[in-house]
Design brief:
alpha+beta, globular, about 35% helix, two-stranded antiparallel sheet, about 150 residues, 3 helices, seven-stranded mixed beta sheet, about 30% strand
Amino acid sequence: MTDTNIEKFKQFMYPIVGAIYEVHKELGPGLNEYVYQEGLAMQLEEDHISFEKEREFTPQYHERTMTAKYRLDFVCLDSIIIECKAVEQLTITHRAQLFNYMRLTKLPIGLLVNFSQKSATIERYIYNQTTNEILSMDGTILTRFTK
């Protein structure tokens, strides 16, 4: 992954990150996750950012579709997963959930958002399908999936 690609991804994320901060500014901390999701859907519409809320996907096993179903909180611009939380602190479990969603859907950008703090926390990640790695925005490899 080159720095140019990371810069391109940052530009993709900029208006979405702005929408997330706008929702938090309006609603403040301490509400239920679903309230923030509804507010974010409204803000994305107002900002004319294409999105799908609760996009469903089913994982594959040996190239066969499983019956297990997952729902992504948001997919914006057909390439950015937004996973919303309203928790005291983001954990490795929250990150693993997002990383696996990125790997299984092959979507290149993931935003993990925690609305519960005084200021919204947004973690930004990139999935490199070629190397099967999750990267931070500075290009550091955080996770490498086998196979």
